[in-house]
Every structure is written in C-alpha cells, then in structure tokens.
Design a protein that fits this description.
Layout (H helix, E strand, L loop, with lengths): L1 H13 L11 H12 L3 E4 L9 E9 H7 L5 E11 L2 H7 L7 E4 L6 H7 L7 E3 L21 E3 L11 H4 L7 E3 L7 H5 L9 E3 L7 H6 L10 E2 L1
Length: about 230
C-alpha cells in the first residue's frame, strides 16, 4: 500500500505529457529530449516553477542519470522507481538544479551523508525517500528544507521518536508518511507544532490506536491519523 501510494503521488504530480500543457520553450524541449535519451518519461508540469517545468520519471536511475539531468535547469521534478544505484556523486550533481521542487526515489539506499547533499536542493517541496538508510541523527539535514510540504520516510525502521525533533521544524509540511518506522505515541504528540498537517500515516509503528484517535483533535487541519 505504501509503495502504491508513493508511486501514485509521483506519477500524478510529476507527469503531464507534452501536448497537454502549455507549449514547451526551446530550452524545455532540449531538457525533454535529454531525458528521453536517458530512457526517462518526461513531460511539462505547469504547477512547477515557471523556469523549471520539466518533470521526468525513470524506472531506474543511476548517478550518470542525475549528473546528466543536472545540466538542464529547466528540470523541476525527478522520480525514480528504483534509485538504489544513486550515490553521493549523483546527489551532489542535483544541487546544480536551482528550481528542483520534487524528488521521489521510491526505493533507494540514501544514507545520512546522501541526505545532507539532497538538502542542498533547498527549494524542494516534495521529498520521497522510503526504504533508505537514514538515521535519527542524519535526519537533521531536512531542517534546511524549509519549503517542504510533502515528506515520505516510510520503511525506515532506524527512525525513532528522536527524528521528530527535526521533522517538527518543517512549518509548511502538509503530508507526512512515517509508516514502518520506530515512532511511538511520544513522537506522535511531538508533531503538534505542525499545524498545517493534513495527512499523517503511522501504519505499522508503535503508535497506539488510542493516540491515533486522540491526536487529530489537537490539530486544526488533520482529520485522521492513518494507522
């Protein structure tokens, strides 16, 4: 269910096929062509930054993929269903994309060091990193991503209540997926400062049914905690 949800979000938010949106500029066409040569599925997404409307999805991405994409500032969204081959080299390259808004790696091996590099993409609004190797200490890097609205850290069992210290600083957060992590009732209640939170998933954690039912009553925009 978690993987299906993340994939649906990625496809739905990232891809509007060329021809169904505003006519791409000459520079956008170059970026689209480059993504196609890399075996990606590119398109124009008019909800992205006006100077970076190209969104591209890959079945598999590597460091070479990310390095090549980084040459095109018109790219505003990247999704890889399998990003396990992406490492420090690729994530360093992404910092060259000034208006990268969305990064989705449905499966990856992102480490704390890698996350620190990803956090260099300071305009990210959506970050999906399930099944990675992130720890509580490493998650401190996300505090630099002050524009984040959507964060998926599912299937990261090394994340515990200590991780919430960093997550709760993300004042714009609306969607937070923490299923299959080590969060407990204590961590759940520490999310209270996130008044804009609309969607919260803590399935397969140590959060109790009682806490999941009570917590939304304290949050102005959160109707239910998915557990």
């Amino acid at each position: 269910m978690r993987i299906a949800l993340s994939m649906a979000i990625g496809v739905g938010m990232l891809l509007t096929l060329v021809g169904q949106a505003d006519e791409p500029t000459a520079e956008e066409k170059k970026a689209v062509s480059a993504a196609q040569l890399l075996k990606g599925k590119p398109g124009i997404d008019t909800t992205l930054h006006p100077n970076a409307r190209v969104a591209v999805r890959f079945d598999t991405a590597t460091d070479a993929t990310l390095v090549a994409l980084a040459k095109y500032p018109q790219i505003g969204a990247i999704q890889a269903l399998d990003g396990t081959a992406c490492t420090t080299r690729g994530f360093t390259a992404l910092q060259s994309l000034p208006n990268l808004r969305r990064l989705t790696l449905n499966k990856s091996r992102v480490t704390d060091k890698d996350l620190a590099l990803i956090a260099g993409c300071k305009n990210l609004q959506l970050l999906v990193l399930p099944e990675s190797g992130i720890t509580d200490n490493g998650l401190a890097a996300v505090t630099k991503l002050t524009r984040l609205e959507h964060l998926d850290l599912s299937d990261n069992p090394r994340l515990t209540d200590k991780a919430i210290e960093h997550i709760k600083t993300l004042e714009r957060l609306e969607v937070l997926l923490l299923n299959k992590t080590g969060i407990t009732d204590t961590g759940l209640y520490e999310l209270a400062p996130l008044e804009g939170l609309r969607t919260l998933n803590v399935a397969a954690t140590k959060v109790t049914a009682e806490a999941a039912e009570k917590f939304p009553t304290q949050m102005p925009n959160l109707r239910v905690v998915r557990r």
